[in-house]
Hints:
By secondary structure, the protein is an alpha/beta fold. The chain is 41% helix and 17% strand. The strands form 2 sheets. The chain has a 5-stranded parallel β-sheet, with helices on both faces. Strands 3-4 form a two-stranded antiparallel ribbon. The radius of gyration is 17 Å and the shape is globular. The termini are close together.
Amino acid sequence: MTKAYVIGIAGGSASGKSTFSDSLEKELQTLRIQTFHMDKYFKPKENRPVTEAPITGKIYMDDNHPETVDLAKLKEDFFAVLEEQYDVIIIEGLLTLWDKDIYQACDLKLFVDCKADERIVRRIRRNMTWGLTYDQITDVYLDMVRYRHDEYVEPTKWRADLILNGSLPIRQALDIIACYIKTAHSTGKDG
């Protein structure tokens, strides 16, 4: 390949995007890889949007809105790396397939789909390890996250080349995608 093969991975909160991305990176470790996790580009808390929940009227920091991510910095870093000598670039996050510039730069677009009930259970387990209470996690999910998912994340599913089942073990999908990328790299074809 003369240019890096770019893989975009999107999906809902706690759908398995990061898990799949990390596993894919390990599977492709013989190649030169750069990975971008959108979560690492959250703006400082004081610069994130605050929104009123549509039903309860409670005010929340809106971490599932495009304005919460420093997309300008992410795109600056991402597009700079496209000029470097990487074989594969992975970019994953809620808005990977929402942002037009990022979406158009991807050679392979994946959406990790997972039912809402499973995602909320995963989110509760994960966020409780971060010190949040059950009520804090469920309140923000029910008041904000699910609405932002419907607004910004779910519609991007139809931009994906492949939709992965986030409820199943990832081994088979991982093997197929890694094999495809390794073959494209070894033959010099970019998809």
